[in-house]
Amino acid sequence: MKHVYCHFLFLFLGFQLLAQTSSDEIYPKGARSVGIGNANVTLADEWAVFNNIGALGRMDHDAVFVGFDQRFGLQELSTLALGTSFHLGNGFIGASVFRFGDDFFNQQAVGLGFSNTLGIVSFGVKVNYLQTNIEGFGRNGAAVLEFGGVAELSPKLFFGAHIYNLNQAKLSQMTEERLPSVVKTGISFRPNDRLMFNVEAQKEIENDPQVKIGLEYNFLEKIWLRTGVNTSPANAAFGLSFTPKKFKIDYALGNNAQLGFTHHVSMSYLLSKQ
Questions:
Q1: Mean per-residue pLDDT for 84-103?
Q2: 48, 94 in Cβ contact below 8 A?
Q3: Relative to the CA of 84, which of 7, 59, 129, 167 has its CA 20 to 30 Å away?
Q4: What CATH topology corresponds to 2-273?
Q5: Can you tell me the distance from the alpha carbon of 144 to that of 265, in angstroms, rounded to the nearest whole number?
Q6: Is the distance from CB of 221 to CB of 235 less than 8 angstroms?
């Protein structure tokens, strides 16, 4: 009986997380993003495959990467993600895979996107196939489209925007309930190569607007420190990064005001540089 109660608890929490933000709690972002409060719309790194496909076109290297998130110490509320990005012609191709949950309740998705840069603007589009499985209730899948871009307003100032679920896909063909559509936009101020300050606003149709603020500082040559805060709900995060040779190793600790702490670890391997 205890086992049954636990499964219902995990199912409830999974739906709660999905309803809260649609992407920040369940979907992978990478530990760098979490460390700056997920103010990630202008970040031109390999995790742009998940965060803003439009920023991927500003990459200067090919990479493979993997990440793991564990929420509140529960294996059943964990996310495993991996992906790759590589140069193709005048742009970048990005592929992603992730899985959240356990055998009782889980979501998994595969995605493929393309991003290119023209002048000061990079833009991209991505298609995902998202599948939700609930034991005893069946399995449903949906195609989810996203679009985004980043503009370099000056060497120190960047502007980014992104929309997730552009096509307003349904959570299930048996109901009219749709997956959340999320729009985010933000700016990034980078006075030098060692400091970045991001401010971002996110709006999901049925939720209050969320403001995200993030700070990243290159403390030592290969060590980066990060912190970030969010509103609605109030969250705080801290992170650090170590970049030996062709590797990037990131860790972040996120705090949800209602649910507690989440640990995030991600690692990237640089394949080649353009």
A1: 92
A2: yes
A3: 167
A4: Porin (2.40.160)
A5: 26
A6: no
pLDDT tens for each residue of 170-196: 776 666 677 889 999 999 999 999 999
CA distance 181 to 135: 26
How far, in Å, CA of 21 to CA of 16, rounded?
9
Tell me the pLDDT tens digit for each residue of 101-147.
887 888 899 999 999 999 999 999 999 999 988 877 777 888 999 99
Closest CA to 266 of 98, 104, 86, 73: 98
What's the chain's length in residues? Answer: 274
Q: Provide the 10 A C-beta neighbour count for residue 160.
A: 27
Task: Using alpha carbons, list the distances in angstroms from residue 167 to 99, 142, 156, 170, 180.
Answer: 22, 10, 34, 9, 10
Look up residue 44 and give its two tokens. Answer: 């031109």
Which of 8-12, 87-91, 108-112, 229-233 is the least confident region? 8-12
Checking if the pLDDT of 16 tops 70, the result is no
Residue that the structure tokens 């995902």 belong to: 128
**Phi, psi at 114, each rounded to 5°:** -135, 140
* Nearest to 237, CA basis, from 265, 220, 262: 262
What are the residue ranges spanned by the domains of the chain? 2-273
Q: How far apart are CA 180 and CA 220, in angstroms?
A: 40
| Pairing state between β 260-273 and 105-118 | unpaired
Q: How far apart are the first and last CA of the chain?
A: 57
